[in-house]
Amino acid sequence: MTTSTPLPYEGIRVVEFTHMVMGPTCGLVLADLGAEVIKVEPIGHGHEGDSTRKLLGSGAGFYPLFNRNKKSLALDLKTPEGKEAVLRLIATADIVSENFKPGTMKKLGLDYETLKKINPRLIYVSLKGFLPGPYDHRTALDEVVQMMGGLAYMTGRRGDPLRAGTSVNDIMGGMFGAIGAMAALAQRAQTGEGQEVQSALFENNVFLVAQHMLQYQVTGKPAAPMPERISAWGVYDVFVVKDGEQIFLAVVSDTSWKIFCDVFQYQDLFDDPRLRNNNERVLARDWLIPLLRERLKDFSAQHLSEVFEKNALPYAPITAPHDLLDDPHLNATGGLAPVELNDGRSINTVLLPLSLNNERLKVRQSAPRLGEHNDSLLGSLGYTAEQIKHLSHPTD
User: What are the φ/ψ torsions at residue 339 (nearest 5 degrees)?
Assistant: First the structure.
């Protein structure tokens, strides 16, 4: 989008009370699309902002990834002054989002029923483990719902459930929260009234495995875990080739099968009456795939990649996430963008996987430092410099 073209949600103010991945993802989508997203972070009483800021290991990338293009307002919500400040802010907001345990926001007096009285146009997005029902008292994590929602069963081998390799439900649950907020904004334009939107990890996970649930009802047979599923395609596998390298190769149509056999001079396979069409090749996989593994094992992964690409056959190298930082397509298309960490280091982040008007949505601001926008935000709400200092440092 050109610099003169406003982003879709410019002028929309979002106040979020979020941490970890699900809640921040909802705000990230809205922020990247132009909304002013204000991240309210707790201070005082042992709190030093969003605890995600300090995570190690697999959580080390959470804060800088999911909190770009946002502002940080650090307040002690357990003091009357901090509570008053955030209520003033919410009175100016279009959307409030939160992903804390059920009951937390009500204890703070920041639940939807309370807030809609001061701002009837408010859209309130709750991102939870479960939608209201028998399970809603449980503490949910991405891995919890993957285990109970069929995804770990489908990902691992039978008897060896395995979680997916990323926070799929947290991220998608946050995205559905953002979609719900967008729908509520459109409805508010018609009715003038806000509403509560709810998105949940468990229900998101069930949506992810819905194809397998319907498969069972259509066929009468339970879906097999992915490692032992009956493939829909004759050739659709990871092959170990020269020097132990791995590559994924797919030959999914009858036209592709002819091309594949021509290119590799496998006339014997093309003429085999047991392999005339894809369904017959699926039924022959128990002997066809071992045969192809033997025939392809002495080719390099690079050579196979070149041959498959030249002939428009699907293939893929087996790539680790960190290798994607050097991916030529991502770098050429602007899919990566620099951000600054709170410690001053510069790294690359990943942009939303969409473009508007043939342009990617930009990073307008790196993930904020704790309380970085206290002065400007509180000042805009009518607080004096002395009051701002007290609100920002309640224990001084």
Answer: -135, 160
Backbone phi, then psi, for 25, in 5-degree steps?
Answer: -65, -40
In the structure encoding, which two tokens stand for residue 192, read together?
A: 């003038």
Catalytic residue list contains 170: yes
Q: Give bridge partners of residue 237 from the DSSP assignment.
A: 249
Q: What is the pLDDT of residues 94-109, one digit of tens each?
A: 999 999 998 999 999 9
Give the global pTM. Answer: 0.93
Provide mean pLDDT across the span 30-36: 98
- Looking at CATH, the fold of the domain delimited by 13-208+328-392 is given as Rossmann fold (3.40.50)
Question: What residues does each domain of the chain span?
Answer: 13-208+328-392, 231-321
231-321: CATH topology is: formyl-coa transferase, domain 3 (3.30.1540)
Out of 50, 94, 142, 170, pick the active-site residue: 170
Q: Extract the tokens encoding 58.
A: 């697999």
Q: Above 60 in pLDDT, residue 2?
A: no
Query: Which residues are CB-contacts of 12 (< 8 A; sequence separation ≥ 6)?
Result: 30, 34, 35, 36, 94, 95, 185
Amino acid at site 44: G
Give yes or no for a contact between 313 and 251, defined as CB atoms under 8 angstroms apart: yes
Task: Return d(Cα 248, Cα 356) in angstroms, integer.
Answer: 32
Nearest of 328, 367, 321, 360 to residue 346 by alpha carbon: 367
Compute the average pLDDT of residues 28-57. Answer: 94
The Cα diameter of the chain in Å comes to: 86
